[in-house]
Amino acid sequence: MIAEAEQAKKALARIKAGAKTEELKSSTLVACLSKNSATKTATSVLNGVNSLLGGNKVNRLEKENAQLHREVDDLNDQIERLHTDMQRLKDTHARELNRTNEQHQQEVSNLKRLLDKAYRWFPSFKRFLNMERECLEYGFNEEQTDNLLNGQRINYSGWLHSNEYRRNVLANNVTAQVIMDAKRNLFLHINETPITQWFKEQFGIGQEQRRGLRR
Prior knowledge:
A four-stranded antiparallel beta sheet has the order 1-2-3-4. A hairpin with a 5-residue loop joins strand 2 and strand 3. It has helices spanning about 1-120, 125-140, 140-150, 195-205, 205-215, and strands at about 155-160, 165-180, 185-190, 195. The chain is about 75% helix and about 15% strand. The termini are far apart. It contains five helices and four strands, in the order αααββββαα. The protein is α+β, with helices and mostly antiparallel strands.
């Protein structure tokens, strides 16, 4: 009986020892499982945060890209409107220029017809115009030319130019006057001498010719 009780105690001790071992294993397993679960949870949270942050960044970039596209479209529209306005201005300017040219040509044509009529109605009118041009070419100013064409005698000091001889001569206090002959032709005189003859005298052209004849 004593032997059987000892065996029962030993068996009970073995069972308790096994139970503690199993309990320790279970605790260790639970701890490991808890640790893995926490790690997975933290990883999931981090992945979620990263995904959330990444998604916000992508959304922001997409919005900025869309805004840039809208701005580019607005700029293209503005450029197109500018091109249209410039073309419209060019067309308007061309029409105005053509209209101005046409008006100018019409005015020139009208003036030419009036001049033709004036030449026919007043034959001396053309002679006066030619004499005005000659006086200005000789070197008289407009006021002096007007006085000459009105038949006035004027005093003149200054340079006179000869288109015939392509030379200038200094006139010192000479008198100038436009003379009309019996045929109503006009001639400019300097010191009561026709200006063509007066130029010859100033340039010594007649004297040179006479010296050549004497030789």
